[in-house]
Amino acid sequence: MSEMDALPKSRTAYVLERLKADLQQGVINPGDQLRQTAIAKRYGVSPTPVREALRVLAADGTIEYTSHRGATVRDFTPQMAQDLYRMRAELEGLACEVAVERMTDEDYATIVAANERLVRETTAGADSATLSLLNKELHFSIYRCTSPVMVEGIQLLWARFSPSVTLWSVGEFSRELDRDHVAILDALQRRDGPAARAAMHAHVMHAWELRQTSAELRATGASAS
Amino acid sequence: MSEMDALPKSRTAYVLERLKADLQQGVINPGDQLRQTAIAKRYGVSPTPVREALRVLAADGTIEYTSHRGATVRDFTPQMAQDLYRMRAELEGLACEVAVERMTDEDYATIVAANERLVRETTAGADSATLSLLNKELHFSIYRCTSPVMVEGIQLLWARFSPSVTLWSVGEFSRELDRDHVAILDALQRRDGPAARAAMHAHVMHAWELRQTSAELRATGASAS
DNA sequence: GGTCAATAGATTCTATAAAATCTTTTCCAT
DNA sequence: ATGGAAAAGATTTTATAGAATCTATTGACC
């Protein structure tokens, strides 16, 4: 009851962090019932901050919250996953086009630096968690050139994934995604908005295809290399 | 302390409803400090459900919530408003394309019925609140043909507006928006996905232009009819 | 006269307890 | 034996009180 790792800004933030981590790690699975008293005892806090955290997750769409009947983790049908990726492709493509309109030279330098870090770690064979984080930083270094509302809109989509299938754990996939990034960076350098949009759109849909093949390999048993 | 209009599902939902209504009506303006004890006394509830409602609004992006410093209603710069409309155009355009893929004949009939209700009330000269609601129903009767995640993503964008400028209060604007709807419905009837996407995209950006001219008229004093 | 520190005030945040609500089990009647 | 109703149990929901935190004002020291 005294093992809060980092500086606990607030109990609610702490519970949110733990819940998201447990969702990503697969400790909590879709369809599970979330009982607030059980969560409170599990994390060593009172039910009040747990309730607030659940309300935030319900607003995100991560969980379903029905009155007096508790919260359940929402399940993802393949169709919903596809829709999420198509929404990402549209919004992040738009963000690239807007970024070209508002990007300063300094902003572009930051983006290039983020990309170099990712490529360096990819070739060095870093673990998938690190690569995934660096990839996120690269993407949002572009989106931050737009406006807070656009960044938040995209963040909400990124938050709604069950990242049990991390694409960056497959070496071949990582190299393909890195190649996509080069095309995006090129368009940004040329200040070509439509090209940047198209490249990002293709990149997100490419990630969707890779995710599908990854799921198929997992289903068949991953016999072929 | 006993004047809860409709059936109060929960105190939190009631507070959320009241807060959103006050935000739409202009009782609460951007930049205002939201003190939870004041809100609690104002609505006749305890601070606890107020806190939960504020957490939901913070997740939406409607308010800014800093620890121990209270909540403030976020201000909208013109650039952020423009970005919001551009995001709407992309997402709702995509939704139309996906709707064509999954729409049944029954779904289409529902959409046509919603449109007929809106046109009827427009020609009858109904108040702007009614027209705005019917317009929302028409739009979401289309989006509901996609999937829950897409509906929620669009709903989040619709929720983030300071609708002090209701386009449906101007007769000429209403007729223009109705004409846009005809083009969208035509594309849906022909099951032409790309055309439906383009029509919706143009419609949303059209609404953005009307909103801008409306703001200009308001600023100059609205002398010309 | 200006700046830093300390205290007072106010507000938020967490916890505990009581009230309302839902589900499940059990018992009675048909 | 089956269906329905009532009661008991469990869970959520709200309220209140105490603890922690931040801001502002006042005073002292440089």
UniProtKB/TrEMBL annotation, chains A, B:
Keyword set, alphabetical order: DNA-binding, Transcription, Transcription regulation
Coiled coil: none
Domain of life, source organism: Bacteria
Domain HTH gntR-type: 9-76
InterPro entries membership: GntR_C (IPR011711), TF_FadR/GntR_C (IPR008920), Tscrpt_reg_HTH_GntR (IPR000524), WH-like_DNA-bd_sf (IPR036388), WH_DNA-bd_sf (IPR036390)
Pfam family, one: FCD
Signal sequence, renumbered to the chain: none
Stored PANTHER family: GLUCONATE OPERON TRANSCRIPTIONAL REPRESSOR, TRANSCRIPTIONAL REGULATOR, GNTR FAMILY
Official protein name in the record: GntR family transcriptional regulator
UniProt source species: Pseudonocardia nematodicida
Lineage, top ranks: Bacteria, Bacillati, Actinomycetota, Actinomycetes, Pseudonocardiales
